[in-house]
Amino acid sequence: MIRTMKLIAPLLLALALSSCALTKSQTNLPIEATDVMAIAPGDPAERVTELLGAPTEVVQLGRRSAYRYDFTEIKRAGLWLLLVGFFNSDTQQDRVWVFFDEANTVSHVGATLDGDRAEWGMPWSDRDEE
User: Fold this and answer.
1) What is the DSSP letter of 105?
2) I need a labelling partner for 38 at 20 to 30 A (CA). Which of 2, 72, 76, 82 fits?
3) Which residues are paired to 24 by β-bridges?
4) Are 75 and 103 in contact, with CB atoms under 8 Å apart?
5) Residue 27: beta bridge partners?
6) Structure pTM?
7) Average pLDDT of the segment spanning 11-38
8) End-to-end alpha-carbon separation of the chain, Å?
9) Which domains does the chain have, with CATH numbers?
10) pLDDT band at 73 (very low <50, low <70, confident <90, very high)
11) How many other β-carbons are positioned within 10 Å of the β-carbon of residue 121?
12) Which run of H or of E encompasses 47?
C-alpha cells in the first residue's frame, strides 16, 4: 500500500501543477469585405470614412494620400507541465490601403483580409495541413 502511494503521489503532484490557457486579443474592429468591395474608384474620401471609419494611419504621398486600416487578432495557447511550458501564438491581420488622387477621390484599393483566420494550437500542431 505504501509503495503504491509512493508511485501515485508524484503523478497526482504533476496533475495538480499542470494547467492550460487560451487567450485572444484584438486590435481595432474587424474590417468587413463587403464594405471594402463597396469602395469604387472616384469615390470621395468622405464615402471611405463612412464605410470603414477613421483610418489607422493617413500617409501623404506628395499631393496624393493613402488611408491604412488595420485589424489584428492574436490567439495564444499554453500548456504547463510541472516546470516546462509549451506555448503557441497565431497572429492574423486585415489590412486595407485606400489610395487617393490629387482631387481626394479614390484611385485604387488594396486589401488582405485574414484577421478571422487566427487559430489556437499547440507548438507541435501543424495548422497548414488543411
Assistant:
1) B
2) 72
3) 75
4) no
5) 72
6) 0.73
7) 86
8) 50
9) 19-122 (3.30.1450.10)
10) very high
11) 14
12) helix 45-52
